Amino acid sequence: MSYTALYRKFRPSEFQDVKGQDHIITTLQNQIRANRIGHAYLFCGTRGTGKTTVAKIFARAVNCGHPVDGSPCGECEMCRAIASGSSMNVIEIDAASNNGVDNIREIREEVAYRPTEGRYKVYIIDEVHMLSPGAFNALLKTLEEPPEYVIFILATTEVHKIPVTIMSRCQHYEFKRISIETITDRMKELMDTEHVEVEEKALRYIAKAADGSMRDALSILDQCIAFYLGEKLTYDHVLEVLGAVDTDVFSSLLRKVIERDVSGVLDVVEDLVMQGRELTQLAADFTWYLRNLLLVKTSDNIEDVLDVSTENMMQLKEESQMIEMDMLYRYIRIFSELSGQLKYATQKRVMLEVALIKLCTPAMESREDSLLDRIRAVEEKVEKSMASVSGMQERIVYAEGPLPGGGSGGHAGVSDAAGAAEVQKHIPDAIPEDVQEVVKNFRSIAGEASGILRGYLKKARLSLGGDNRLLIVLPDSLSASVVGREDHIEELESLIEARLGKKVEVEVRKVEEGRHFEDTFVDIEQKINMKITVED
Predict the structure, then answer these.
(1) What is the pLDDT averaged over residues 495-508?
(2) 446-494, pLDDT tens digit by residue?
(3) Residues 132, 100: contact at Cβ < 8 Å?
(4) For a disulfide at 342, which of 53, 280, 298, 479, Cβ 3.0-4.6 Å?
(5) Residue 454 neighbours by CB distance under 10 Å
(6) DSSP labels, 516-529
(7) Separation CA 248–CA 250 (nearest Å)
Protein backbone atom coordinates (compact mmCIF):
# COMPACT_ATOMS: atom_id res chain seq x y z
CA MET A 1 0.00 0.00 0.00
CA SER A 2 1.29 3.47 -0.88
CA TYR A 3 2.43 5.87 1.86
CA THR A 4 -0.12 8.37 3.20
CA ALA A 5 1.10 11.81 4.28
CA LEU A 6 0.80 12.55 8.00
CA TYR A 7 -1.69 15.38 7.57
CA ARG A 8 -4.01 13.06 5.58
CA LYS A 9 -3.44 9.99 7.73
CA PHE A 10 -4.28 11.84 10.96
CA ARG A 11 -6.99 14.17 9.67
CA PRO A 12 -9.61 14.42 12.48
CA SER A 13 -12.75 12.36 11.99
CA GLU A 14 -14.54 13.59 15.13
CA PHE A 15 -15.03 17.01 16.68
CA GLN A 16 -12.94 16.15 19.75
CA ASP A 17 -9.91 15.47 17.51
CA VAL A 18 -9.92 19.03 16.16
CA LYS A 19 -7.32 21.12 18.03
CA GLY A 20 -7.27 24.83 18.72
CA GLN A 21 -10.83 25.68 17.57
CA ASP A 22 -12.85 24.97 20.71
CA HIS A 23 -15.01 28.11 20.31
CA ILE A 24 -16.32 26.80 16.96
CA ILE A 25 -16.57 23.10 17.86
CA THR A 26 -18.66 23.79 20.99
CA THR A 27 -21.08 26.01 19.05
CA LEU A 28 -21.62 23.47 16.26
CA GLN A 29 -22.11 20.57 18.71
CA ASN A 30 -24.69 22.58 20.65
CA GLN A 31 -26.58 23.33 17.43
CA ILE A 32 -26.67 19.65 16.49
CA ARG A 33 -27.77 18.56 19.97
CA ALA A 34 -30.55 21.20 20.09
CA ASN A 35 -31.52 20.65 16.42
CA ARG A 36 -30.92 24.38 15.69
CA ILE A 37 -28.94 23.80 12.49
CA GLY A 38 -28.48 26.81 10.20
CA HIS A 39 -28.82 26.76 6.43
CA ALA A 40 -25.55 28.58 5.57
CA TYR A 41 -22.14 28.80 7.26
CA LEU A 42 -19.03 30.80 6.38
CA PHE A 43 -15.76 29.31 7.66
CA CYS A 44 -12.82 31.69 7.28
CA GLY A 45 -9.25 31.73 8.54
CA THR A 46 -5.67 31.10 7.49
CA ARG A 47 -4.59 27.90 5.75
CA GLY A 48 -4.36 24.63 7.66
CA THR A 49 -6.54 25.64 10.61
CA GLY A 50 -9.28 23.03 10.02
CA LYS A 51 -11.98 24.73 7.93
CA THR A 52 -12.59 21.90 5.44
CA THR A 53 -12.04 19.23 8.10
CA VAL A 54 -14.70 20.74 10.40
CA ALA A 55 -17.06 21.13 7.43
CA LYS A 56 -16.76 17.41 6.63
CA ILE A 57 -17.27 16.36 10.25
CA PHE A 58 -20.31 18.65 10.46
CA ALA A 59 -21.75 17.14 7.26
CA ARG A 60 -21.41 13.66 8.77
CA ALA A 61 -22.85 14.75 12.11
CA VAL A 62 -26.05 16.26 10.66
CA ASN A 63 -26.66 13.07 8.64
CA CYS A 64 -25.58 10.58 11.31
CA GLY A 65 -28.26 8.16 12.47
CA HIS A 66 -26.87 7.96 16.01
CA PRO A 67 -24.88 11.12 16.83
CA VAL A 68 -22.89 10.97 20.08
CA ASP A 69 -22.90 14.27 21.98
CA GLY A 70 -23.19 16.23 18.75
CA SER A 71 -20.46 14.26 16.96
CA PRO A 72 -20.88 11.58 14.26
CA CYS A 73 -20.80 8.02 15.55
CA GLY A 74 -18.52 6.91 12.69
CA GLU A 75 -20.16 3.47 12.56
CA CYS A 76 -23.55 3.91 10.88
CA GLU A 77 -24.02 3.48 7.14
CA MET A 78 -24.25 7.23 6.45
CA CYS A 79 -21.06 8.01 8.39
CA ARG A 80 -19.13 5.33 6.52
CA ALA A 81 -20.50 6.43 3.12
CA ILE A 82 -19.61 10.09 3.69
CA ALA A 83 -16.15 9.18 5.05
CA SER A 84 -15.40 7.08 1.97
CA GLY A 85 -16.70 9.79 -0.39
CA SER A 86 -19.41 7.62 -1.93
CA SER A 87 -22.40 9.51 -0.48
CA MET A 88 -24.43 11.77 -2.77
CA ASN A 89 -25.47 13.87 0.23
CA VAL A 90 -22.16 15.70 0.60
CA ILE A 91 -20.96 17.62 -2.46
CA GLU A 92 -17.51 19.26 -2.33
CA ILE A 93 -16.85 22.02 -4.88
CA ASP A 94 -13.51 23.73 -5.52
CA ALA A 95 -14.46 27.32 -6.37
CA ALA A 96 -10.97 28.00 -7.73
CA SER A 97 -11.68 25.79 -10.78
CA ASN A 98 -15.50 25.93 -10.78
CA ASN A 99 -16.05 29.64 -10.42
CA GLY A 100 -18.42 30.47 -13.26
CA VAL A 101 -22.13 31.22 -13.39
CA ASP A 102 -22.88 27.89 -15.06
CA ASN A 103 -21.37 25.95 -12.14
CA ILE A 104 -23.63 27.76 -9.68
CA ARG A 105 -26.67 27.22 -11.93
CA GLU A 106 -26.03 23.47 -11.75
CA ILE A 107 -26.16 23.71 -7.95
CA ARG A 108 -29.45 25.65 -8.14
CA GLU A 109 -30.95 22.87 -10.28
CA GLU A 110 -29.65 20.08 -8.02
CA VAL A 111 -31.03 21.52 -4.76
CA ALA A 112 -34.54 20.99 -6.06
CA TYR A 113 -34.14 17.23 -5.45
CA ARG A 114 -34.34 15.78 -1.94
CA PRO A 115 -31.54 13.51 -0.66
CA THR A 116 -32.17 9.83 -1.39
CA GLU A 117 -30.85 8.92 2.06
CA GLY A 118 -30.08 10.87 5.20
CA ARG A 119 -31.54 14.18 6.31
CA TYR A 120 -29.46 16.88 4.60
CA LYS A 121 -27.71 17.68 1.37
CA VAL A 122 -24.50 19.54 2.33
CA TYR A 123 -22.63 21.68 -0.22
CA ILE A 124 -19.04 22.48 0.83
CA ILE A 125 -17.66 25.24 -1.43
CA ASP A 126 -13.93 25.62 -0.79
CA GLU A 127 -12.02 28.85 -1.64
CA VAL A 128 -15.38 30.52 -2.23
CA HIS A 129 -13.72 33.95 -2.67
CA MET A 130 -12.61 32.75 -6.14
CA LEU A 131 -16.19 32.83 -7.49
CA SER A 132 -16.85 35.45 -10.16
CA PRO A 133 -19.23 38.37 -9.42
CA GLY A 134 -21.82 36.73 -11.67
CA ALA A 135 -21.51 33.42 -9.80
CA PHE A 136 -21.97 35.19 -6.45
CA ASN A 137 -25.13 36.84 -7.78
CA ALA A 138 -26.43 33.49 -9.04
CA LEU A 139 -25.76 31.92 -5.61
CA LEU A 140 -27.38 34.75 -3.69
CA LYS A 141 -31.06 33.78 -3.98
CA THR A 142 -30.44 30.08 -3.35
CA LEU A 143 -28.29 30.93 -0.34
CA GLU A 144 -30.98 33.18 1.09
CA GLU A 145 -33.89 30.74 0.82
CA PRO A 146 -32.61 27.19 0.28
CA PRO A 147 -34.87 24.14 0.77
CA GLU A 148 -35.07 22.91 4.36
CA TYR A 149 -32.90 19.88 3.54
CA VAL A 150 -29.94 21.86 2.11
CA ILE A 151 -26.96 23.28 4.04
CA PHE A 152 -24.25 25.44 2.48
CA ILE A 153 -20.76 25.60 4.03
CA LEU A 154 -18.50 28.20 2.41
CA ALA A 155 -14.78 28.11 3.25
CA THR A 156 -12.26 30.85 2.45
CA THR A 157 -8.84 32.18 3.42
CA GLU A 158 -9.67 35.70 2.17
CA VAL A 159 -12.92 36.78 3.76
CA HIS A 160 -12.47 40.41 2.66
CA LYS A 161 -13.20 39.29 -0.93
CA ILE A 162 -16.63 37.90 -0.02
CA PRO A 163 -19.52 40.26 -0.93
CA VAL A 164 -21.37 41.68 2.06
CA THR A 165 -24.65 40.35 0.64
CA ILE A 166 -23.28 36.79 0.89
CA MET A 167 -21.79 37.27 4.37
CA SER A 168 -25.05 38.65 5.77
CA ARG A 169 -26.85 35.39 4.86
CA CYS A 170 -24.34 33.12 6.62
CA GLN A 171 -23.29 32.29 10.16
CA HIS A 172 -19.72 33.58 10.28
CA TYR A 173 -17.04 31.46 12.04
CA GLU A 174 -13.45 32.73 12.33
CA PHE A 175 -10.83 29.96 12.60
CA LYS A 176 -7.88 31.14 14.70
CA ARG A 177 -4.21 30.39 14.15
CA ILE A 178 -3.31 27.39 16.30
CA SER A 179 -0.87 28.07 19.13
CA ILE A 180 2.67 26.66 19.19
CA GLU A 181 1.88 24.66 22.34
CA THR A 182 -1.20 23.05 20.78
CA ILE A 183 0.64 22.10 17.57
CA THR A 184 3.61 20.73 19.55
CA ASP A 185 1.37 18.60 21.77
CA ARG A 186 -0.50 17.21 18.76
CA MET A 187 2.73 16.30 16.94
CA LYS A 188 4.06 14.66 20.09
CA GLU A 189 0.93 12.45 20.24
CA LEU A 190 1.28 11.47 16.60
CA MET A 191 5.02 10.68 16.94
CA ASP A 192 4.23 8.39 19.88
CA THR A 193 1.67 6.65 17.66
CA GLU A 194 4.17 6.38 14.79
CA HIS A 195 6.98 5.27 17.16
CA VAL A 196 9.32 8.02 15.95
CA GLU A 197 11.82 9.52 18.39
CA VAL A 198 11.87 13.34 18.21
CA GLU A 199 13.36 16.07 20.40
CA GLU A 200 10.76 18.40 21.89
CA LYS A 201 12.88 21.41 20.89
CA ALA A 202 12.69 20.20 17.29
CA LEU A 203 8.89 19.92 17.46
CA ARG A 204 8.60 23.43 18.93
CA TYR A 205 10.68 24.89 16.10
CA ILE A 206 8.50 23.10 13.51
CA ALA A 207 5.38 24.45 15.25
CA LYS A 208 6.81 27.97 15.14
CA ALA A 209 7.75 27.62 11.45
CA ALA A 210 4.18 26.44 10.66
CA ASP A 211 2.84 29.88 11.69
CA GLY A 212 -0.41 28.62 13.23
CA SER A 213 -1.18 25.96 10.60
CA MET A 214 -1.52 22.34 11.78
CA ARG A 215 -1.34 21.04 8.21
CA ASP A 216 1.89 22.94 7.49
CA ALA A 217 3.40 21.61 10.73
CA LEU A 218 2.63 18.00 9.82
CA SER A 219 3.96 18.51 6.28
CA ILE A 220 7.26 19.94 7.62
CA LEU A 221 7.48 17.11 10.17
CA ASP A 222 6.91 14.54 7.39
CA GLN A 223 9.71 16.09 5.36
CA CYS A 224 12.16 16.09 8.30
CA ILE A 225 11.41 12.47 9.21
CA ALA A 226 11.93 11.37 5.59
CA PHE A 227 15.33 13.10 5.46
CA TYR A 228 16.55 11.41 8.64
CA LEU A 229 14.60 8.16 8.29
CA GLY A 230 15.36 5.71 11.08
CA GLU A 231 17.25 8.31 13.18
CA LYS A 232 16.20 10.43 16.12
CA LEU A 233 14.96 13.78 14.79
CA THR A 234 16.93 16.55 16.53
CA TYR A 235 16.72 20.34 16.57
CA ASP A 236 19.85 20.62 14.42
CA HIS A 237 18.38 18.20 11.88
CA VAL A 238 15.27 20.36 11.55
CA LEU A 239 17.39 23.50 11.06
CA GLU A 240 19.36 21.73 8.34
CA VAL A 241 16.27 20.50 6.47
CA LEU A 242 14.57 23.91 6.59
CA GLY A 243 17.74 25.89 5.87
CA ALA A 244 17.17 27.81 9.10
CA VAL A 245 19.68 29.36 11.52
CA ASP A 246 20.18 28.84 15.25
CA THR A 247 19.63 31.77 17.65
CA ASP A 248 23.32 31.75 18.64
CA VAL A 249 24.15 32.86 15.10
CA PHE A 250 21.65 35.72 15.38
CA SER A 251 23.24 36.75 18.67
CA SER A 252 26.71 36.78 17.11
CA LEU A 253 25.41 38.68 14.08
CA LEU A 254 23.69 41.31 16.23
CA ARG A 255 26.78 41.91 18.37
CA LYS A 256 28.91 42.47 15.27
CA VAL A 257 26.31 44.92 13.93
CA ILE A 258 26.30 46.84 17.24
CA GLU A 259 30.12 47.01 17.04
CA ARG A 260 29.75 48.27 13.43
CA ASP A 261 32.05 45.44 12.30
CA VAL A 262 31.17 45.26 8.59
CA SER A 263 33.80 42.66 7.70
CA GLY A 264 32.71 40.43 10.61
CA VAL A 265 29.07 40.67 9.51
CA LEU A 266 29.94 39.72 5.93
CA ASP A 267 31.98 36.76 7.21
CA VAL A 268 28.87 35.48 9.04
CA VAL A 269 26.79 35.80 5.85
CA GLU A 270 29.50 33.95 3.89
CA ASP A 271 29.41 31.06 6.38
CA LEU A 272 25.60 30.84 6.23
CA VAL A 273 25.56 30.88 2.43
CA MET A 274 28.20 28.13 2.28
CA GLN A 275 26.06 26.04 4.68
CA GLY A 276 23.14 26.38 2.27
CA ARG A 277 20.90 28.38 4.59
CA GLU A 278 17.75 29.91 3.11
CA LEU A 279 18.27 33.70 3.11
CA THR A 280 14.56 34.58 3.05
CA GLN A 281 14.04 32.45 6.16
CA LEU A 282 17.16 34.02 7.69
CA ALA A 283 15.76 37.55 7.25
CA ALA A 284 12.38 36.56 8.72
CA ASP A 285 13.95 34.80 11.71
CA PHE A 286 16.38 37.67 12.43
CA THR A 287 13.44 40.11 12.37
CA TRP A 288 11.69 37.85 14.89
CA TYR A 289 14.87 37.82 17.02
CA LEU A 290 14.92 41.65 17.01
CA ARG A 291 11.23 41.65 17.95
CA ASN A 292 11.99 39.45 20.98
CA LEU A 293 14.82 41.80 21.92
CA LEU A 294 12.44 44.78 21.72
CA LEU A 295 9.95 43.03 24.03
CA VAL A 296 12.71 42.27 26.55
CA LYS A 297 13.91 45.88 26.45
CA THR A 298 10.45 47.41 26.93
CA SER A 299 8.93 44.99 29.47
CA ASP A 300 9.85 43.91 32.97
CA ASN A 301 8.19 40.48 33.29
CA ILE A 302 8.50 39.10 29.78
CA GLU A 303 9.48 35.51 30.66
CA ASP A 304 5.88 34.27 30.50
CA VAL A 305 5.27 35.87 27.10
CA LEU A 306 8.37 34.90 25.12
CA ASP A 307 8.72 31.28 24.05
CA VAL A 308 12.50 31.00 24.54
CA SER A 309 14.79 28.95 26.75
CA THR A 310 16.34 30.29 29.96
CA GLU A 311 19.75 30.57 28.26
CA ASN A 312 18.31 32.53 25.34
CA MET A 313 16.42 34.80 27.74
CA MET A 314 19.65 35.65 29.59
CA GLN A 315 21.31 36.32 26.23
CA LEU A 316 18.48 38.65 25.16
CA LYS A 317 18.59 40.55 28.44
CA GLU A 318 22.33 41.07 28.09
CA GLU A 319 21.98 42.31 24.51
CA SER A 320 19.08 44.62 25.43
CA GLN A 321 21.56 46.58 27.57
CA MET A 322 23.95 46.91 24.63
CA ILE A 323 21.53 48.55 22.17
CA GLU A 324 19.52 51.80 22.22
CA MET A 325 15.81 51.82 21.46
CA ASP A 326 16.10 54.00 18.34
CA MET A 327 18.74 51.63 16.92
CA LEU A 328 16.44 48.66 17.53
CA TYR A 329 13.50 50.36 15.79
CA ARG A 330 15.71 51.11 12.79
CA TYR A 331 17.02 47.53 12.60
CA ILE A 332 13.47 46.11 12.68
CA ARG A 333 12.30 48.54 9.99
CA ILE A 334 15.17 47.71 7.63
CA PHE A 335 14.75 43.93 8.03
CA SER A 336 10.95 44.07 7.77
CA GLU A 337 11.35 45.84 4.43
CA LEU A 338 14.02 43.31 3.40
CA SER A 339 11.76 40.32 4.19
CA GLY A 340 9.16 41.59 1.73
CA GLN A 341 11.74 42.30 -0.98
CA LEU A 342 13.58 38.96 -0.78
CA LYS A 343 10.53 36.95 -1.90
CA TYR A 344 10.87 38.25 -5.46
CA ALA A 345 14.59 39.07 -5.56
CA THR A 346 17.10 37.27 -7.80
CA GLN A 347 20.17 38.55 -5.89
CA LYS A 348 19.11 37.68 -2.34
CA ARG A 349 22.61 37.59 -0.91
CA VAL A 350 23.44 41.08 -2.21
CA MET A 351 20.25 42.54 -0.75
CA LEU A 352 20.91 40.88 2.61
CA GLU A 353 24.47 42.18 2.71
CA VAL A 354 23.35 45.71 1.79
CA ALA A 355 20.76 45.65 4.59
CA LEU A 356 23.36 44.52 7.14
CA ILE A 357 25.83 47.18 5.98
CA LYS A 358 23.05 49.75 6.43
CA LEU A 359 22.69 48.63 10.04
CA CYS A 360 26.44 49.06 10.59
CA THR A 361 26.73 52.41 8.78
CA PRO A 362 23.71 54.63 9.51
CA ALA A 363 25.23 57.40 7.34
CA MET A 364 23.90 55.44 4.33
CA GLU A 365 20.36 56.49 5.31
CA SER A 366 18.82 59.96 5.36
CA ARG A 367 15.59 58.99 7.12
CA GLU A 368 14.67 60.76 10.33
CA ASP A 369 14.82 57.62 12.50
CA SER A 370 18.49 57.15 11.58
CA LEU A 371 19.68 60.60 12.70
CA LEU A 372 20.43 59.65 16.31
CA ASP A 373 22.32 56.56 15.19
CA ARG A 374 24.32 58.65 12.71
CA ILE A 375 25.24 61.09 15.47
CA ARG A 376 26.15 58.20 17.73
CA ALA A 377 28.42 56.71 15.04
CA VAL A 378 30.23 60.04 14.55
CA GLU A 379 30.70 60.45 18.30
CA GLU A 380 32.15 56.94 18.56
CA LYS A 381 34.69 57.81 15.87
CA VAL A 382 35.61 61.05 17.67
CA GLU A 383 35.98 59.24 20.99
CA LYS A 384 38.22 56.60 19.40
CA SER A 385 40.36 59.33 17.81
CA MET A 386 40.66 61.21 21.12
CA ALA A 387 41.53 58.00 22.94
CA SER A 388 44.21 57.29 20.33
CA VAL A 389 45.69 60.79 20.70
CA SER A 390 45.57 60.51 24.51
CA GLY A 391 47.38 57.19 24.33
CA MET A 392 50.10 58.73 22.18
CA GLN A 393 50.55 61.61 24.66
CA GLU A 394 50.88 59.19 27.55
CA ARG A 395 53.72 57.43 25.72
CA ILE A 396 55.75 60.67 25.35
CA VAL A 397 58.91 60.66 27.57
CA TYR A 398 60.12 64.13 28.63
CA ALA A 399 63.84 64.85 29.00
CA GLU A 400 65.13 66.22 32.31
CA GLY A 401 64.64 69.95 32.72
CA PRO A 402 61.76 72.41 32.83
CA LEU A 403 58.54 71.54 31.01
CA PRO A 404 56.91 74.02 28.66
CA GLY A 405 54.85 76.57 30.57
CA GLY A 406 57.13 76.75 33.61
CA GLY A 407 56.60 73.15 34.85
CA SER A 408 59.35 70.70 35.58
CA GLY A 409 59.86 66.99 35.20
CA GLY A 410 59.45 64.30 37.84
CA HIS A 411 56.88 64.86 40.62
CA ALA A 412 56.49 68.55 39.96
CA GLY A 413 53.78 67.77 37.36
CA VAL A 414 51.75 65.96 40.02
CA SER A 415 52.11 68.92 42.36
CA ASP A 416 50.97 71.31 39.62
CA ALA A 417 47.92 69.13 38.88
CA ALA A 418 46.97 69.07 42.57
CA GLY A 419 47.30 72.85 42.71
CA ALA A 420 45.10 73.24 39.62
CA ALA A 421 42.46 70.98 41.19
CA GLU A 422 42.57 73.14 44.32
CA VAL A 423 42.00 76.29 42.25
CA GLN A 424 39.14 74.56 40.42
CA LYS A 425 37.34 73.95 43.70
CA HIS A 426 37.30 77.66 44.59
CA ILE A 427 35.92 79.12 41.35
CA PRO A 428 33.26 81.68 42.44
CA ASP A 429 29.67 81.58 41.16
CA ALA A 430 28.73 84.10 38.49
CA ILE A 431 26.24 86.93 39.04
CA PRO A 432 23.59 88.14 36.52
CA GLU A 433 25.99 90.74 35.08
CA ASP A 434 28.51 87.95 34.43
CA VAL A 435 25.83 85.91 32.64
CA GLN A 436 25.09 88.98 30.50
CA GLU A 437 28.75 89.02 29.54
CA VAL A 438 28.52 85.34 28.57
CA VAL A 439 25.48 86.08 26.37
CA LYS A 440 27.30 88.94 24.69
CA ASN A 441 30.27 86.70 23.84
CA PHE A 442 28.36 83.43 23.39
CA ARG A 443 29.06 83.11 19.68
CA SER A 444 32.80 83.09 20.21
CA ILE A 445 32.43 80.68 23.17
CA ALA A 446 30.26 78.32 21.09
CA GLY A 447 32.86 78.50 18.31
CA GLU A 448 35.31 76.69 20.58
CA ALA A 449 32.90 73.77 21.18
CA SER A 450 33.22 70.33 19.51
CA GLY A 451 31.91 69.92 15.96
CA ILE A 452 28.45 68.42 16.63
CA LEU A 453 27.74 70.71 19.57
CA ARG A 454 28.89 73.79 17.67
CA GLY A 455 26.49 73.02 14.80
CA TYR A 456 23.42 72.70 17.05
CA LEU A 457 24.31 75.82 19.10
CA LYS A 458 23.84 77.92 15.96
CA LYS A 459 20.06 77.36 16.37
CA ALA A 460 20.00 78.30 20.08
CA ARG A 461 18.44 81.32 21.81
CA LEU A 462 19.52 82.45 25.24
CA SER A 463 17.91 83.70 28.43
CA LEU A 464 18.74 84.22 32.09
CA GLY A 465 17.51 81.40 34.32
CA GLY A 466 18.71 82.67 37.75
CA ASP A 467 21.67 84.35 39.46
CA ASN A 468 24.32 82.18 37.80
CA ARG A 469 22.23 80.15 35.35
CA LEU A 470 22.22 80.42 31.56
CA LEU A 471 19.13 79.02 29.80
CA ILE A 472 19.69 77.66 26.26
CA VAL A 473 16.50 77.10 24.27
CA LEU A 474 16.41 74.96 21.09
CA PRO A 475 13.68 74.60 18.46
CA ASP A 476 13.13 70.79 18.55
CA SER A 477 13.57 67.65 20.66
CA LEU A 478 16.51 66.29 18.65
CA SER A 479 18.71 69.39 19.01
CA ALA A 480 17.72 69.75 22.69
CA SER A 481 18.62 66.09 23.39
CA VAL A 482 22.04 66.48 21.73
CA VAL A 483 22.98 69.80 23.39
CA GLY A 484 21.46 68.68 26.70
CA ARG A 485 23.66 65.61 27.03
CA GLU A 486 25.66 65.61 30.26
CA ASP A 487 29.07 65.66 28.55
CA HIS A 488 28.02 68.54 26.29
CA ILE A 489 26.73 70.63 29.21
CA GLU A 490 30.00 70.00 31.08
CA GLU A 491 31.92 71.08 27.97
CA LEU A 492 29.94 74.35 27.75
CA GLU A 493 30.36 75.10 31.45
CA SER A 494 34.13 74.47 31.15
CA LEU A 495 34.41 76.84 28.17
CA ILE A 496 32.50 79.56 30.04
CA GLU A 497 34.64 79.10 33.15
CA ALA A 498 37.80 79.36 31.05
CA ARG A 499 36.51 82.60 29.46
CA LEU A 500 34.90 84.19 32.52
CA GLY A 501 36.79 82.75 35.45
CA LYS A 502 33.48 82.13 37.21
CA LYS A 503 31.03 79.23 37.41
CA VAL A 504 27.86 79.45 35.29
CA GLU A 505 25.23 76.66 35.35
CA VAL A 506 23.89 75.75 31.90
CA GLU A 507 20.33 74.48 31.43
CA VAL A 508 18.95 73.25 28.07
CA ARG A 509 15.28 73.19 27.05
CA LYS A 510 13.25 72.78 23.87
CA VAL A 511 10.67 75.37 22.83
CA GLU A 512 7.23 74.97 24.45
CA GLU A 513 4.43 73.47 22.30
CA GLY A 514 2.12 75.98 20.66
CA ARG A 515 4.62 78.86 20.87
CA HIS A 516 6.83 80.29 18.14
CA PHE A 517 10.49 79.68 18.73
CA GLU A 518 11.41 83.30 17.99
CA ASP A 519 8.94 84.65 20.58
CA THR A 520 9.60 82.18 23.38
CA PHE A 521 12.59 83.88 24.99
CA VAL A 522 14.09 87.35 24.79
CA ASP A 523 17.34 87.51 22.85
CA ILE A 524 19.50 89.19 25.49
CA GLU A 525 22.22 89.96 22.98
CA GLN A 526 19.88 92.38 21.20
CA LYS A 527 18.40 93.81 24.41
CA ILE A 528 21.59 93.88 26.46
CA ASN A 529 21.14 97.47 27.62
CA MET A 530 17.57 96.89 28.82
CA LYS A 531 16.57 96.05 32.34
CA ILE A 532 16.68 92.26 32.85
CA THR A 533 14.15 90.42 35.02
CA VAL A 534 15.67 87.36 36.62
CA GLU A 535 13.53 84.25 37.25
CA ASP A 536 13.27 83.05 40.85
Answers:
(1) 82
(2) 878 776 777 778 778 877 766 678 888 887 777 778 788 888 888 888 8
(3) yes
(4) 280
(5) 12
(6) -HHHHS--TTTSTT
(7) 5
Q: Are 530 and 476 in contact (CB under 8 A)?
A: no
Which of helix, strand or coil describes residue 75?
coil
Residue-level pLDDT at 393: 53
Interval 138-194: pLDDT, tens: 888 888 888 889 999 999 998 889 999 999 999 999 999 888 889 999 999 999 998
Long-range contacts of 485-494 (CB under 8 A, 24+ apart): 488/449, 488/450, 488/453, 491/449, 491/450, 491/453, 492/445, 492/449, 492/453
Contact 468, 431 (CB under 8 A): yes
Contacts of 25 (CB under 8 A, 6+ apart): 15, 16, 18, 54
Q: Percent of the chain having pLDDT more than 70?
A: 81
Strands 90-94 and 121-126: parallel
Cα 435 to chain centroid, rounded: 50
Q: 4 to each of 1, 10, 219, how far by Cα in Å?
A: 9, 9, 11
pLDDT band at 384 (very low <50, low <70, confident <90, very high): low
Q: What is the distance between the alpha carbons of residues 52 and 139, in angstroms, rounded to a whole number?
A: 20
Contact of 136 with 167, CB cutoff 8 Å: no
